[in-house]
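quick one, 537 residues, struct below
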Amino acid sequence: MQSFFVAGLLSLMSLSAAIAQTSVPQDAAAQTGPAQKMRDYYKADAAEFEALQEKQSVDLKRILTRMQTLEADQKKLRTANRQALHVMRANRFGSGGGAAAITPSSAPVGALFTVTGSGFGDSASTNTVVLIGGTTASMTLWTESRIQGTLPYLTTGQYPVVVRRYAGNTIAQTYITIVAPTITAASPQTAEAGGAFTLTGTAFGGYSGGQLNGKPAARVMVDGSAVCALSSWTDSQIRGIIPDDTAAGPHTFTVVREGSGGAQASNAAGFTTGGNVSAARALASASNSYDPTAGLLLPASWGGAVESASRAAVSVPANALASDTVISIATAAISQDAAALMFQSENKIYIKPVGQPVTFGPADLTLASPATLTIPFDRAQIPYGKTERDLAVYKWDDAAQSWQKVASTLKNGRLVAQAQQLSLYQAMAQGVNQAASEVFALRQFYVYPNPAKNGNSPKLHLECGVGDGYDVRIYDVAGELRHSAHFDGPPQLGTEYNYEYVWDMNGAGSGVYTAVMEAHKAGEGNIRAKKKFAIVR
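---
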């Protein structure tokens, strides 16, 4: 509206100026009489308009000045409103510094920390920061009562932890002590390249994942240059694998934590290698004296690798996980379901295990993109007439109750495969010709599936050569006989001669049972075997 008013005034001023400049003809015949009166009239009218124009100009200047004053007042008002809002927010979020607690109270750089308190509000980009010793920490979580992040690079000492919202507004403050990781022991003192190691000490911090400058932010290094594959990482113990290319001779371990701005290294712990990497790989089995279980928290945005002392490994690509996940490796006894079909026919070609099965977890986790699995095997278990070229990776399909072949390659004495699901995997020898023996003797007895779930009937499987028949008895946990059966006749032929019996579980509820199978043969003693199994309704 102001602009329209100003435009009108300007138009009026233009009109008056035009009138003032209007002239009357000045010829000789019109110098007196009515013509002179007309000239006088126009002169008076022009003078009146000129006076009006001057007054309008003064009014316009006064209006423009007032408008400038109003605009300045509006700016002051907006500034005052912002300041009032800032004060209101500061009062809400505890201006002046409130109580907070941080865990851990001491840790190395790059370690995860958690601040707990109240009134933190929601994360608001650069307006919400945690300053540790004046350095901005990298944040992973910010809620009303909980903040998580990683410690930036600082030298050892105690530093204030300031939670700040908006410029200069301190919500809460506490303190943390930055300490250096320290190795107190490394074992074994004499090891082979490719073998497992364990470091014990203090202030290792938690494994935080991620990478900085092309290397893991939390890492163990040999001689300050080679990065070790890791099995597990806690504040007081780290387990991993000595790099395969470590030469024979004396070496050192160091634990490195890297944060924004720099890295902090532990003291050096010495060890010696003999340089026999192939021997270390050949012994990569359950007989390894180190705990074969491995597990690391891998960040979804980075992924990462985990490797166990048995040399089983999994490498997860970036963004394959839906969220930060603990990826584990377990080398243990195979499930009875899988053992039941360890020797199975694929177009009359049999497979045989050549090492311990490996369970990658979380079980049945499906990744957005394939992970690289590395499966060790025991050369001593490769059947006669077969070589490493006859080996392949198989995955146990629990739903189909069968082993499924996975495309794999042989690399550095281990099998490597791509898989999008974490599950039970096994190195197998393919094309095994195994002649079934007719000798009447116990070979193996098992019940599968175990436990029998969802109405699936348990199957009793006895391998004992050629007999004349068998008896079955099933007892409950109280020792009472729940079922019995007797059959005469020869066994069926698979990879071994066997008797197999299916119990329909009629009237049996959930619980633990004991199955007994007894084979008999004329002129020879009976063969008796028993096994516990479970039913889950």
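The first strand starts at residue 101 and ends at 103.
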